Amino acid sequence: MTNQANAPNPTPGGATKSQTTLITGASGGIGYELAKLLARDRANLVLVARSGDKLVEIARELQGNFSCTVKTIALNLEDSHAPKFLFDQLQNEGLTVDILINNAGFGAFGVFAQMPEPEILGQIELNISALTHLTRLFLPAMVTRRRGRIMNLASTAAFQPGPMMAVYYATKAYVLSFSEALANELNGSGVTVTCLCPGPTNTNFAKRAGNDGTRLFKKIGGMNAEAVARDGYRGLMEGKTLVISGMQNWLVAESVRFAPRKMVTAISRWISEKVE
Ligand SMILES: NC(=O)c1ccc[n+]([C@@H]2O[C@H](COP(=O)([O-])OP(=O)(O)OC[C@H]3O[C@@H](n4cnc5c(N)ncnc54)[C@H](OP(=O)(O)O)[C@@H]3O)[C@@H](O)[C@H]2O)c1
To answer: Ligand 1 center to residue 174 CA distance, Å?
Structure first.
């Protein structure tokens, strides 16, 4: 643990003390690493996830180490009323959100026909609906202020179909398409939209998804969450529309554009199979 006196220097062009950043899914993984980067730059934070106790612990750590204020809100964003509840709560407290990071998301491994319905609908609710609803709620005030940043977490899964995780891959294709279209609509508005696409990353994601035993995670392996967050944060602050974290991931995402779709889907399936 560092204390404030020997905390690293803020990121050039990073968030400022007067800005508030809302991060969903900040109780672990990439969201937590993003929260640390923003806290280091003294941004004030609103952290959201279901695990309120973990968020409180993180708030204590960040406020102890950096000169920032951290508000935590325990919320299940799979609940369709949650985005509006969150927006209203922050409005009532007079909090302006300058940066919105839609990071919360999950995947589920298995053939679609046998996947429990709540797992299917939960992915759509969290990865698509909550992200879209939160963006719609917080964006208009950013446009009025002519200032704001949004970052949506997609994945390299967004670039091709994903047999064995069909719904997850499709949700991330939505996030990528939505983010790129929105970035275009907002061109010149003072508001930027960044879509961060990590490849496999070592967080709780794979264990939760049940794909930790696949070729993707066992043979190819994951990046570390801190490096992914750093790439995303830099891209967010530069107003980049698309950030693919890691050279290998970038090459894979770019190369699938030129290969026959059926072949890409077959390779995607092979990578997603479980191995010893
Ligand atoms: N790790 C990877 O390989 C990878 C690759 C590409 C993209 N991504 C994307 O990156 C994002 C972050 O994932 P991660 O790897 O950091 O995974 P993670 O370690 O599992 O973290 C997910 C975060 O989302 C929160 N969350 C999950 N369900 C939620 C719900 N219903 N309501 C509110 N918060 C919820 C979790 O907190 P609680 O459990 O406390 O709610 C946690 O803070 C996701 O969108 C994921 O799809 C991950």
So the answer is: 17
The model scores a pTM over 0.85: yes
Q: Is 32 a catalytic residue?
A: no
From 47, 50, 86, the mutation candidate for ligand 1 (largest count of ligand atoms within 8 A of CB) is 50
CA-CA distances (angstroms) from residue 53 to 1, 50, 58, 226? 19, 9, 9, 22
Ligand 1 pocket residue status of 245, Cβ below 6 Å:
no
Instruction: Identify the pLDDT of residue 218.
Output: 87
Among protein residues, the one with the nearest Cα to ligand 1's atom 16 is: 29
- In the numeric block, the tokens 């970035």 are attached to 183
pLDDT tens-digit readout, 59-116: 999 999 998 999 999 999 999 999 999 999 999 999 999 999 999 999 999 999 999 9
* 96 residue type, one letter: T
CA distances from 270 to 13, 173, 215, 264 (A): 42, 19, 8, 10
pLDDT tens for 249-263 read 999 999 898 999 999
